[in-house]
């Protein structure tokens, strides 16, 4: 539930990026492209606070337990996200508006950084023998559900409200909905037990810091393609389609829903398959497919003669190949670290990779397309990061779950 809320909010922010840009980052006479770049800069800033949150909350989680820290981060995330829905805009308070938004984004980044490590630790430490891949895949699956919920909410509002209503108050609704969702997640976490594995091994000797740092770097490298391709295809796509390919808001959201459905469809099967054949072959297959298909996929979307059905199949397939990396990814990270540094280690690996390659995706893509005029930039970005992930995965043993 906590992970669902986190990615629901991050998805909503991405889907409404053009509206948020107009409301918070566009003073009188400012350009739309400049405002969108600033919006993505705020987006990226929140991601760069995720490693800080991962280190802070991870250290607490490895010392005092997973349960109390997971309770704390859901309270912080819910409060910050709900308050975004109540913020005054630039027209109301001037330059204070983007600063308030950015401050809340920082709080979201801190709490999101503490979410992944704890949640994956709980699920993999609770998994029966030989099922870590499947149990860990639920973390990625709730990413898909959160992004789908955000896209579905945005699409519903876009079709039921006028453009003026959506811009004036409709965009606030998805953020305010976080409050009841967060209270539900808090109720569930208050009922959560500490994992037996943590209770049994918390006092074991911790590995050397150098070994932990090496595992963090390797883990971040293995998932950078998942992070970059995932955000390119699942979150940045709507704004790219609108600003570069002149798609309508509704068309962009439909494409995003299809991509996230493809993503959701392969995550759990990929996690289960990794329990049988190992993490590396499943994740490497997804990375290879992104390298091979990213440019043809984008060219198909750019072709005005391509049917809507073909474009729908293409974006569904794009999401599906990212799911091949996301399914085994959590268990792969968990298996890199012993129990007494797992919350910190896997949380930092995930947060660092996402800070650089997800959080900056919108900013890098938008600014590079603006400067070069090359509309294939998103494909190059996804393919290049997946190529580097393949090199990192080559160092990984083809390990089956323990």
Which descriptors would you attach to this protein?
single chain, disordered C terminus, 402 residues, globular, mainly alpha
List the helices and strands and how they pair.
Blueprint (H helix, E strand, L loop, with lengths): L1 H14 L1 H8 L7 H17 L1 H15 L1 H19 L5 H4 L2 H30 L6 H29 L2 H8 L1 H5 L1 H13 L5 H6 L7 H35 L5 H29 L1 H24 L5 H19 L2 H6 L4 H19 L3 H12 L4 H17 L9
Structure description:
It is a single chain. The two termini are 26 Å apart. The protein contains 20 helices and no strands. Residues 398-402 have low confidence and may be disordered. With 402 residues, the chain is mainly alpha-helical.
Short overview:
With 402 residues, this protein is mostly helical. The protein contains 20 helices and no strands. It is 82% helix and 0% strand.
User: How many E strands?
Assistant: 0
Give the biggest beta sheet.
Answer: none
Strand content: under 5%
What oligomeric state is this?
A: single chain
- The level of helicity is over 70%
| Mean pLDDT over the full residue set | 87
| Category by helix and strand content | mainly alpha
Poorly predicted residue ranges: 398-402
Give me the Rg, rounded.
20 Å
- Our count of helices gives 20
């Amino acid at each position: 539930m906590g992970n669902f809320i986190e990615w629901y909010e991050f998805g909503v922010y991405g889907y409404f990026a053009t509206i948020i840009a107009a409301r918070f980052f566009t003073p009188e006479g400012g350009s739309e492209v400049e405002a969108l770049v600033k919006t993505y800069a705020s987006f990226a800033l929140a991601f760069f606070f995720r490693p800080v949150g991962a280190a802070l909350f991870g250290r607490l989680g490895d010392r005092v337990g997973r349960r109390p820290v997971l309770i704390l981060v859901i309270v912080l995330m819910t409060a910050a996200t709900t308050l975004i829905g109540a913020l005054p805009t630039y027209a109301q308070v001037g330059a204070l508006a983007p600063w308030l938004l950015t401050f809340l984004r920082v709080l979201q980044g801190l709490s999101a950084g503490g979410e992944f490590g704890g949640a994956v630790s709980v699920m993999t430490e609770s998994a029966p023998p030989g099922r870590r891949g499947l149990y860990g895949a639920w973390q990625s699956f709730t990413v898909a559900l959160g992004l789908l919920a955000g896209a579905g909410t945005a699409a519903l509002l876009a079709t039921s409200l006028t453009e003026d209503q959506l811009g004036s108050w409709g965009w606030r609704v998805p953020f305010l909905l976080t409050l009841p969702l967060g209270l539900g997640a808090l109720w569930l976490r208050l009922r959560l037990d500490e994992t037996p594995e943590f209770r049994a091994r918390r006092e074991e000797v911790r590995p050397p810091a150098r070994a932990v740092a090496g595992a963090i770097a390797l883990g971040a490298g293995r998932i950078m393609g998942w992070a970059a391709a995932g955000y390119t295809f699942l979150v940045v796509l709507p704004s790219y389609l609108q600003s570069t390919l002149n798609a309508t808001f509704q068309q962009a959201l439909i494409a995003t829903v299809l991509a996230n459905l493809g993503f959701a469809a392969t995550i759990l099967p990929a996690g289960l398959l990794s329990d049988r054949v190992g993490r590396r072959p499943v994740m490497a297959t997804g990375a290879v497919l992104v390298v091979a298909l990213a440019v043809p996929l984008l060219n198909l979307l750019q072709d005005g003669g391509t049917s809507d059905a073909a474009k729908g199949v293409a974006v569904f397939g794009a999401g599906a190949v990212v799911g091949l990396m996301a399914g085994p990814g959590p268990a792969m990270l968990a298996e890199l670290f012993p129990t007494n540094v797992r919350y910190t280690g896997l949380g930092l690996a995930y947060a660092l990779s996402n800070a650089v390659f997800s959080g900056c995706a919108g900013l890098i893509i938008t600014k590079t397309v603006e400067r070069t005029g090359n509309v294939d930039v998103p494909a190059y970005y996804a393919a290049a990061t997946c190529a580097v992930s393949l090199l990192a995965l080559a160092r990984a043993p083809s390990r089956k779950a323990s």
